[in-house]
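INFO  loader      accepted 1 record
INFO  loader      residues=483
INFO  predictor   begin
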Amino acid sequence: MNWKVASLVNAFKSPLVSLGPLDPDAAAMLITAASDIALIIDNQGRIRDLAFSSERLAVELEGSETWVGREWLDVVSPDSQPKVATMLRNRSQAAPPRWRHLNHPSRSGGSVPVLYSTVQLAETGYLVAFGRDLTDISELQQRLVDAQQSMERDYARLRHVETRYRLLFEMSSEAVMVVDATSLKLVEANPATREMFGENWKRALSRSLRDAFDNECQDRIQAMLAAVRAVGRAEPVRATLADTGRDVTITGSMFRQEGASLFLIRMLPVETDQPVAMPEASSQLLKLIENAPDGFVVTGPDGRISAANAAFCDMIQLSTQEQTREERLDRWLGRPGVDMDVLMANLRQRGQVRLFQTVLRGEFGDTLDVEISAVQLVNGGQPGFGFAIRHVGRRPQASQQVQLPKELPRSVEQLTELVGRIALKDLVREATDVIEKLCIEAALELTGDNRASAAEMLGLSRQSLYVKLRRYGLGDLTEDLQP
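INFO  predictor   done
INFO  writer      dumping tokens
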């Protein structure tokens, strides 16, 4: 078999001597072994024969058994057809063989990349197209592109976070500094900090943080930083700046960045016109409310929470009091829109409610039986409401502590007087009984005490009417019980 190949720098020097004459079977084996897919193309560009040495490529190109007799242009993707036409057109040129990337449609709907080079047979003029499967390389390239895009997205996200941090840091009206936790040297300071240190801020901030304050304050600052380093937080301390003599309050927190520990220091100026100190008794009362085991809540006239203590947050399964701000109390109280409306109506009418029994719903589905005592507040002309909420779930037979009236109420006014004294479910049952009794009395009066007509008017059977008459003690049932 004679080959018509272009001269190559590294081609065999004497192929006839080293290889000898090759029969067709040996040539076919060489062609198949040298490529993942080999095509024999005639002078019209049709595929005369093909062979696979890659089993995966043969499976992916599921319809390849129908390629024989079809044009090479028809078995490649549209974007690869111009390359095939060029390879067929330049088949007789003496230029060195050139590898071209072609795509074949795959059974999965995608494409299979194959790198082809052609050699012309001298006797027949046919082309032998050697193909190398590029699927693995293409997948690696795609993973590389995906990784690069992911890194670009991460970089963009970090840039956005840094921009927001920088904007917040620079525009903050509070003096904020980042200080190295080991050397106490300044790492970064915002404009408010530079303004607080005055004209000599560069010299002040080039020293240790302790040296920027008076000698009398340095021990307090050192103790505050030690507490922050140990437990992550500390009580604010008051200090005086060494250069300007300005009094400030210092607070700090700690964080780690790139393996280093850093302090975030905030400085607030101490105002000269301090408000009048709160009396000791009032301060103790506030501490008592804040640390009390019962929940305390203050709301505005619309029922939105303005303040709540830690016990209430525990009851509703929230971690901080800030999460309750501007939320409506009936989000967690009883039936939404019912219990809260009853409480508000009684508070506006009477100014206070005592021992109102309902339930409190937590954020994660838990419910607690609670008693609520509430009072109306007036603060600067704006009405508000204070609620004391006590968990009564562990009381033995708590529901029996409030005794119901022996006789049913006779009017709506008597029913409303029970609000806050008995549980809402008991109040609803009382109201139902009162209405039922009044309707039966009215029916008996309209029918002249005719039990059959009264039962028909009420839509009841005579037996059901007699049961209700005995329940409410209405009339003499002796005659009706005679056979």
